[in-house]
Amino acid sequence: MPKLGYLLPTRERVMENHHETGSLLALAERAEALGFDSIWVGDSVTARPRHDPLTLLAAVAARTRRAELGTAVLLPALRNPVLLAHQVATVDRIAEGRLILGIGIAADMPAIRREFQAMGVPFDKRVGRMNEAMRLCKALWSGKPVDWDKLWTVKQGTVGPTPHNPGGPPIWFGGGLPAGRERTGRLYDGWFPNLPTPEEYPAQIAEVRAAASAAGRDPKAITGAMYLTLAIDDNAARADAKINDYLAHYYGVPAAGMRARQRSYAGAAEGAAAWLKSYADAGATHLMLRFAGDHERHLELAARIKRDLGWS
Q1: Beta bridge partners of 3
Q2: pTM, 2 dp
């Protein structure tokens, strides 16, 4: 049955000038108690400031026991991959193998270009840096000495601990465009877009799996996931206004543009259930939900939807 995940509001809390972490950890515990299958944290350094995802997930790992934990999505190009391999392996050990590493390349927006500049990373080289960083992480996760001489130089390097599971955590790529679908099938373990509609999803996940087959990989082993944003309210106009206000405030751009680039739902719980089911019917086996505010209420509503759909 499909799995349901929950994105912690790290960006929102910082925007509200609430920098403490106690409420975020409480939400993580509540989500697990309500039956959510996974808990997620987003990533940004200066473009959309928020808590560091791996540091926070280490704390979430210590406060939970069952739920999978993931990044939605981490930007590997901003990080030294040797240090990243060390951090990810440590978090995965704390989580006892529950970690999912969602990764991406970031959208081409002025604030994100400034973020890459601030981090000393060429924005136009981010795809190659990400792919090499992940290859180097996997090599280091083997626990064997690594020699590497490409963008980074490693001589007989090892990191410890190794991840909980051999080979490290599953890596899901968050690319919804054709190049991202091909890249996912060729290199990664899951597809984690926010762009396709339920009608588009079957053909696009088929492209991912065809790319996996062409690369000699098992297409059935690739997880089909989806990143979704919801504002659930019986008053449709109020729900629509909530999601528009949320997206405009979150991204600092008109909401209409973001709604065209990211799939979102605004309306009653019954419609939300049908919308989520349409993605499951289309082949998505893991749905990660981001809520437009009112997190405690949304968690309760989504947990009820999960039960009503028989996904518990």
Answers
A1: 286
A2: 0.98
Domain boundaries, the chain: 3-308
- Inter-helix orientation angle 269-282/201-214, to 10°: 30
Q: Averaged over 299-312, what is the pLDDT?
A: 97
Structure-token pair, residue 4: 């349901």
Nearest residue to 42 via CA among 17, 67, 5, 16: 5
Of the candidate CATH numbers 3.30.1340.30, 3.20.20.30, 3.40.50.2000, 3.30.590.20, the domain formed by 3-308 belongs to 3.20.20.30
> Burial level of 285, CB count in 10 A (0-12/13-18/19+)?
middle
- N-terminal to C-terminal alpha carbon distance within the chain: 8
Closest-CA residue to 130 (of 74, 186, 182, 202) = 74
Which pLDDT tens digit goes with each residue over 112-152?
999 999 999 999 999 999 999 999 999 999 999 999 999 99
Q: Which amino acid is at 266?
A: A
Return the closest-CA partner of residue 79 out of 59, 99, 98, 54: 54
- Please state at what angle helix 201-214 crosses helix 178-187, rounded to 10 degrees: 40
pLDDT category, 308, cuts 50, 70, 90?
A: very high
Stretch 185-196: mean pLDDT: 98
User: Is pLDDT of 312 > 90?
Assistant: no
Who's near 39: CB < 8 A, 6+ residues apart?
A: 5, 6, 8, 28, 31, 32, 60, 64, 67, 68, 69, 70
d(CA 298, CA 269): 10
- Give the separation between CA 110 and CA 93, rounded to whole angstroms: 36
**Cβ–Cβ contacts within 10 Å for residue 206, how many?**
15
